[in-house]
């Protein structure tokens, strides 16, 4: 009985074993299929992402290579191409200690070359609104311009992702640091201010009439006038400058660039610029040098009118002495100061036709025999709120830049929008 029971149990186990074994593969395959599908989907998605990444990387590199190739013709000019390693060594790899300031183009660094020569390096920022076109524009223009009142470009570097401009180093930095800073009382006496005004005028005259090219700067302001060790002024920042053809008198553009407070009204409101636009900016700068005050948003908020309106009002009421910087006290030649004042008002007249040329301005400044016409009233600008709405409606794209060490002409609002650039 025991033997038969054992055989019966063994037979049952043998009968059920194949059934159990045969059911395992089906169960296993049914569980494994979703896992395999999931893995396959992940692999496909990752492959697609990788392909997109490679495509974008190649496209980005192609654009960079094209930009660099566009820069190559510059090597045929008189401007030397400098290698990145020497600039890195000169600026200590663009260390914070060597940073002079920040502009619309990008940061500016002080450097010392192997021979001991000091340089200033402008480094194109990746976030800069001024791209390769502006970089090339500045290089090609300044490489062809040589004047004692224009900043000297020593070289450039286009290597890897870097775009660098190398200038002569000017130890006194920009005019606005003296004019609107705490050092003006000790340094900017009348003779120095007069010399700066005349130097800027001669630099603009060279750009407009005496150089091989007819150039409109379009962004003349206190922070774009640099001072050398003898306080001689040098006009800088030609990224927004434009070359005029021989027969061109004015150009109409929908893309307005410059700094609020310095832009001529016809340029700010209609996009029309000419050499007379620079004359207007020069006039504003002259009045700032005389008064020691900035024609900007702060002045507008405090006085409810612009600096040039104040200048006109005091001139018209025969109270010109009240406009002159109090730090000068009475230590200035009245006739010379009044001639600069008069010339500045002639430059900021609303109609471009009424403004003098820069050759006429230089003559006014150097000759005490020149008969100056009576200036017309400068433009009356709208209130900030109205001006802002008008500018937004006109959809002007204002590309401007800050400069140096936060003593720059930012928020110089007297003509167009109230936002900083």
TrEMBL record:
Cite the Protein kinase domain residue spans from the record: 94-372
SUPFAM superfamilies hit by this protein: Protein kinase-like (PK-like)
Query: Which GO-annotated molecular functions does the record name?
Result: ATP binding; protein serine/threonine kinase activity
Q: What cellular component GO annotations does this protein have?
A: plasma membrane
Kindly list the residue ranges recorded as spanning the membrane: 35-55
Entry's Gene Ontology BP terms: immune response; signal transduction
Query: EC number(s) on record?
Result: 2.7.11.1
Q: Note the PANTHER family from the entry.
A: OS02G0710500 PROTEIN, RECEPTOR-LIKE SERINE/THREONINE-PROTEIN KINASE SD1-8
**Protein's UniProt name:** non-specific serine/threonine protein kinase
């Amino acid at each position: 009985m025991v033997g038969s029971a054992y055989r019966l149990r063994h037979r049952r186990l043998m009968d059920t074993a194949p059934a159990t074994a045969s059911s395992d593969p089906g169960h296993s395959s049914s569980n494994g299929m979703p896992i395999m599908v999931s893995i396959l989907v992940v692999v496909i998605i990752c492959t697609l992402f990788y392909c997109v990444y490679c495509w974008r990387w190649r496209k980005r590199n192609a654009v960079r290579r094209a930009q660099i190739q566009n820069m190559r013709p510059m090597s045929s000019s008189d401007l030397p191409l400098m290698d990145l390693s020497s600039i890195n060594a000169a600026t200590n790899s663009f260390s914070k200690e060597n940073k002079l300031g920040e502009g619309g183009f990008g940061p500016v660094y002080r450097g010392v070359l192997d021979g001991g020569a000091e340089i200033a390096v402008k480094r194109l920022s990746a976030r800069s609104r001024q791209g390769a076109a502006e970089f090339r524009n500045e290089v090609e223009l300044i490489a062809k311009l040589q004047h004692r009142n224009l900043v000297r470009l020593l070289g450039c570097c286009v290597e890897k992702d870097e775009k660098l401009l190398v200038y002569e180093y000017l130890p006194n930095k920009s005019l606005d640091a003296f004019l609107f800073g705490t050092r003006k009382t000790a340094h900017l006496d009348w003779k120095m201010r007069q010399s700066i005004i005349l130097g800027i005028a001669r630099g603009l005259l060279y750009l407009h009439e005496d150089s091989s090219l007819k150039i409109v700067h379009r962004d003349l302001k206190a922070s774009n006038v640099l001072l050398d060790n003898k306080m001689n002024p040098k006009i800088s920042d030609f990224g927004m400058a434009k070359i005029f053809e021989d027969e061109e008198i004015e150009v109409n553009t929908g893309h307005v660039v410059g700094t609020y407070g310095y832009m001529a009204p016809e340029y700010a409101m209609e996009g029309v610029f000419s050499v007379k636009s620079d004359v207007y900016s020069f006039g504003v700068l002259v009045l700032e040098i005389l008064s020691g005050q900035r024609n900007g948003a702060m002045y507008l908020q405090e006085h409810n009118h612009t600096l040039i309106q104040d200048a006109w009002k005091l001139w018209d009421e025969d109270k010109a002495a009240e406009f002159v910087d109090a730090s000068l006290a009475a230590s200035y030649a009245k006739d010379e100061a009044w001639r600069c004042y008069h010339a500045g008002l002639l430059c900021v007249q609303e109609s471009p036709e009424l403004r003098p040329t820069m050759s006429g301005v230089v003559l006014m400044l150097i000759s005490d025999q020149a008969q100056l016409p009576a200036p017309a009233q400068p433009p009356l600008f709208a209130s900030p709120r109205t001006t802002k709405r008008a500018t937004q409606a006109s959809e002007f794209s204002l590309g401007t830049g800050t400069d140096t060490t936060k003593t720059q002409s930012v928020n110089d609002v007297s003509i167009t929008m109230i936002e900083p650039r």
